[in-house]
Amino acid sequence: MRAGIYGRNISPEDASFVEKVVHEMGLYFDPIFIEEAYYQCLKENLDSLPELTVLSDDEKISDKVEVLFTIGGDGTILDTVSKLRNTNIPVMGINTGRLGFLTSTGRGEVQVALQMIAEGKFHLDPRTVIELDASQNIFADSPYALNEFTILKKESSSMITVHTFVDDVYLNSYWADGLIIATPTGSTGYSLSCGGPILHPGSSSFVITPVAPHNLTVRPLVISDDKKISFEVTGRSETFLSSMDSRYDTFDALCRLSVKKAPFRFQMMRLNDYSFLHNIRMKMMWGADQRNWEKRY
User: Fold this and answer.
1) Tens digits of per-residue pLDDT, 108-163?
2) Phi and psi at residue 79, in whole multiples of 5°?
3) CB of 126 within 8 A of CB of 225?
4) Which positions ≥6 away from 109 have C-beta within 8 Å?
5) Domains present along the chain, CATH in parentheses
6) Left if phi > 0, otherwise alpha if psi is -120 to 50, otherwise beta: which for 3?
7) Which of 101, 149, 169, 220 has the smallest number of CB atoms closer than 10 Å to its CB?
8) What is the number of other CB atoms lying within 10 angstroms of the CB of residue 20?
9) pTM to 2 decimals?
10) What's the Cα-to-Cα distance from 70 to each of 33, 246, 272, rounded to whole Å?
11) Hey, how many other C-beta atoms are within 10 angstroms of the C-beta on 164?
């Protein structure tokens, strides 16, 4: 099976673990493709490497691989959305970051996970992707996000007003620091930190979550993901900030923005014994009350 490795960088404390992961991948996959920038990072930080096929700048990793492994945190997985787009190449995240809702494979699970994937013992876990349509040239290279699309005030300017429409029907004018449109995958990210609900990955929904709203009666709203959500933004600043996952761009008040569900889904790899509910419970430390553990565990 043709595999790929994608990462951003390596911290010194993770070097030995990453070296072990790369060598173990060589036991199960051939060939293994890697982009030049990350390959150079590995060479500079690791003592040894297995045989890897390095891609030139004009070669796309999506044209070469059948599965893709990311080494890092959730942000590393988010980077691959624009690289893979509608190719349906499955992705498995190996976690060297912190909490890691998407990078579900921990340090003690790598060898078993690699072997199971090589043997085809995994399921695909399709995730909804947001697509942006903008009247100005923002995110033109890849108008897609797995977690969320966000409109924000720029730097230390005063709050903004985001006039919001659902299928061209007026919903609300959010007086706030910003507005988040999150997928079920992104519901455990920025939206959650702003008071939004956690959505199951299989939910066909978006959540609209205001950032620091000025009106205290305004609350997050869950809507069907077959809706188009449009925005007109006003404020005292001449420009505003927008983000798609970890990428940022600016626009002005003349820009008309709308988001909808993309015509493809991002394919996460899920091992046969994986449970989203178990993952959430462990990551969020639900049930950590000693009374629960005494009775159930």
Assistant:
1) 888 889 999 999 888 899 999 999 999 999 999 899 999 999 999 987 778 999 99
2) -60, -30
3) no
4) none
5) 3-120 (3.40.50.10330), 129-263 (2.60.200.30)
6) beta
7) 169
8) 14
9) 0.90
10) 12, 16, 19
11) 21
